[in-house]
Amino acid sequence: MRLTALALALLGLIAPAALAADPGLTFFAWSDQHVTAAGDAAHVLPAVEALNKLPGAPYPEKTGGKVAAPAFVFSCGDATDAPTPAAVAAFDEVITKRLKFPSFEIVGNHDESGPPAGDAIRKWVAARHGATSYTFDRGGVHFVAPLATGNDAAGNLTEAISKEALDFIRTDLAKTPRGTPVVVALHVGLPAIKNRDEVVQSFGDANVVLVLGGHLHKAAAGEYKGVRFFVLPPCKPEAGLAREVVVVRLTADRLLALTWDYVAGKWLDDPAVTLNAAIKGPKKE
Which residues contact 276 (CB under 8 A, 6 or more apart)? Predict the structure, then answer.
């Protein structure tokens, strides 16, 4: 039988002061790694090293405390520039042999469109997570990860989320217990979604505390119609782009999402890439 924190405190196994703390759920997030079609992932390795070293790092002074070990790392798509066997194999090696934490992924437009186009990433995600659209639960939080890629036609970063993806979100959240904190992950960041009103409507009355995205190759945090979003920074090897990852912490009453510049070795003190907001989060144990 698992002992509660209170029982452990009464037994003297943990300090009573620990009862006042809410460790919540911590996870790390990144996106748009763009491993080359030839399988070159060298530009991704500094980010992986930074993720591996983040646990124990002090948060900014005004936040206090230290970064906990993450329950997992989430990637919002475009792991590859094109879904070649070499690119897929290289990214798989990065997250299974170099990254120290469990990993969840979704499909991005480059993961399908190539050239050459293909379904290698779809098959890889389905093999890892049971389907290309899937859900999971960690630390009292429900995560929804639909297949929603967009075609990036003519270099246009603004895309619509498909009816199939919206139906998946709507159907899943309709059967999710009311009040459960929910994180929705899409490849296209919310500000670049053409039908973002439909996306928000698909949430119904679910307690969606955060929408993650990527695709835009620039970190951005904000709120749209009462829904908080975070567009994750890229790892694409372009000047000044491959240098940031994100730490997300969800407690019973607060959402914290901070951007870590691993090249400069500092947190970005910029409200445009930071979330610190009151939420109805996971219950304390």
Answer: 63, 254, 255, 256, 257
